[in-house]
């Protein structure tokens, strides 16, 4: 797989470089158009700066949200162009379409060292189409814009989309520094993790994490389970879980996993149980084996946080994906905070597996540099650890 360094070594001054970035940033629900977390935009800066400073004409493309293959003002990348310009310290030109007249004109007018951001790729149905011909036709149009292709969107490499998979087949292609780093880190924790190896999983559903649990269980010393998914495991132990999130169809699967693990799966011993899903709801710490029928668990409790922190303390490798509770609501953030802080203190290598975990680090104001690596791709990270082929990575390797 050729890298950005290889491309820079060949020389890009005056050449057009198409950069697939992951600018799928979250917005403040109370203030439309205001980015609440620009972590993904900051992650691609080194690649954009290197190309800009080398004199390339940089064409950046990304998706945002899930529009239905047509323009939707709710998902415009215009605010992202503004923020990207602020981060780069220079104006970012914005094209109001993907491959239409505005994009074509602005690509043609690009000067050396300028950066252009195309409108949301998913405004074109060809981006996500499962029809190879439709997807390929869109990729053909995108490929006419550039001389080279750089993929630095690790958060999208698990998708067989036009800008991720098909454009790479049409241009000389290179992996950006972010993609290279992500693959190196995930290869390390999946193939050669230093022991003891502890994995911390949270999030809402067991079904979403089943494949990664099955892939990692033979490799780990401890698998700590929190978040909404823990209640299906607790039910598998014979405990009642009240109104907590529960996947009935997964209870027997969890029972089998607990038997296979032979004590290596660690579950909460207490939880913060509330009367409803609200920051203002009445809530108390209860034993995990005695959740009241009219309550739902929204965080792991203090004993569980101590238990998890103790298991983490001696680890040489930690992989964390998924919060321990509803960290966005202050009364239910302590478990996630406590576990995250424990991870920062290990004498070893830690990986935050993107998604809500990465968002939690920033939302809770934790020191990002205290973690070994914070991934930009939650779904891509999990699929890599499951052993799946990532289309965007395989395209770069061809």
Automatic annotation (TrEMBL):
PANTHER family referenced in this protein's UniProt entry, alphabetically: PHOSPHOGLYCERATE KINASE, PHOSPHOGLYCERATE KINASE 1, CHLOROPLASTIC-RELATED
TM segment ranges: none
Predominant location category: cytoplasm
EC number(s) stated in the UniProt entry for this protein: 2.7.2.3
Pfam family of the protein (one): PGK
Localization per record: Cytoplasm
Originating gene: pgk
Key words of the record: ATP-binding, Cytoplasm, Glycolysis, Kinase, Nucleotide-binding, Transferase
Entry's Gene Ontology cellular component terms: cytosol
Enzyme kind, highest EC tier: transferase
SUPFAM superfamilies: Phosphoglycerate kinase
Similarity comment text for this entry: Belongs to the phosphoglycerate kinase family.
Superkingdom, natural source: Bacteria
Cited InterPro entries: Phosphoglycerate_kinase (IPR001576), Phosphoglycerate_kinase_CS (IPR015911), Phosphoglycerate_kinase_N (IPR015824), Phosphoglycerate_kinase_sf (IPR036043)
UniProt: ATP binding residues: 209, 297, 328, 354-357
Binding sites annotated in the UniProt record for (2R)-3-phosphoglycerate: 40, 122, 159
GO biological process, one term: gluconeogenesis
Catalytic activity, reaction form: (2R)-3-phosphoglycerate + ATP = (2R)-3-phospho-glyceroyl phosphate + ADP
GO molecular function, one term: ADP binding
Pathway(s) served: Carbohydrate degradation; glycolysis; pyruvate from D-glyceraldehyde 3-phosphate: step 2/5
Sequence positions that bind substrate: 22-24, 40, 63-66, 122, 159
Subunit structure: Monomer.
Family annotation (PROSITE patterns): PGLYCERATE_KINASE
Designated name of the protein: Phosphoglycerate kinase
């Amino acid at each position: 797989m050729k890298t950005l360094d290889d491309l820079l070594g060949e020389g890009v001054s005056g050449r057009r470089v198409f950069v697939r970035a992951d600018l799928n940033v979250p917005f403040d629900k109370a203030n439309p158009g205001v980015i609440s977390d620009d972590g993904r935009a900051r992650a691609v800066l080194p690649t954009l700066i290197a190309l800009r400073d080398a004199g390339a004409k940089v064409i950046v493309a990304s998706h945002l949200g899930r529009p239905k293959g047509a323009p939707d003002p709710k998902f415009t990348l215009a605010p992202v162009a503004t923020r990207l310009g602020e981060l780069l310290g220079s104006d970012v030109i914005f094209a109001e379409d993907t491959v239409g007249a505005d994009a074509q004109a602005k690509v043609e007018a690009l000067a050396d060292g300028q950066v252009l951001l195309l409108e949301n790729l998913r405004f074109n149905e060809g981006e996500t189409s499962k029809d190879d011909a439709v997807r390929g036709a869109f990729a053909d149009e995108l490929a006419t814009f550039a001389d080279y292709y750089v993929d630095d969107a690790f958060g999208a490499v698990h998708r067989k989309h036009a800008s991720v998979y098909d454009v790479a087949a049409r241009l000389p292609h290179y992996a950006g520094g972010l993609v290279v780093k992500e693959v190196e880190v995930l290869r390390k924790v999946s193939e050669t993790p230093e022991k003891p190896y502890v994995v911390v999983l949270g999030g809402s559903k067991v079904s979403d994490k089943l494949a990664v649990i099955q892939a990692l269980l033979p490799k780990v010393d401890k698998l700590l389970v929190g978040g909404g998914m823990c209640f299906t495991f607790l039910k598998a132990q014979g405990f009642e879980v009240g109104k907590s999130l529960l996947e009935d169809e997964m209870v027997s699967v969890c029972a089998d996993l607990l038997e296979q693990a032979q004590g290596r799966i660690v579950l909460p011993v207490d939880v913060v149980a509330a009367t409803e899903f609200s920051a203002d709801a009445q809530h108390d710490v209860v034993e995990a084996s005695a959740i009241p029928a009219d309550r739902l668990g929204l965080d792991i409790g203090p004993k569980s946080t101590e238990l998890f922190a103790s298991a983490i303390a001696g680890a040489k490798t930690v992989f964390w994906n998924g919060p321990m509770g509803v960290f966005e609501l202050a009364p239910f953030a302590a478990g996630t905070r406590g576990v995250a802080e424990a991870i920062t203190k290990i004498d070893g290598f830690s990986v935050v597996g993107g998604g809500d975990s990465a968002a939690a680090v920033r939302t809770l104001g934790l020191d990002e540099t205290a973690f070994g690596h914070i991934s930009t791709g939650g779904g891509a990270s999990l699929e890599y650890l499951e052993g799946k082929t990532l289309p965007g990575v395989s395209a770069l390797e061809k």
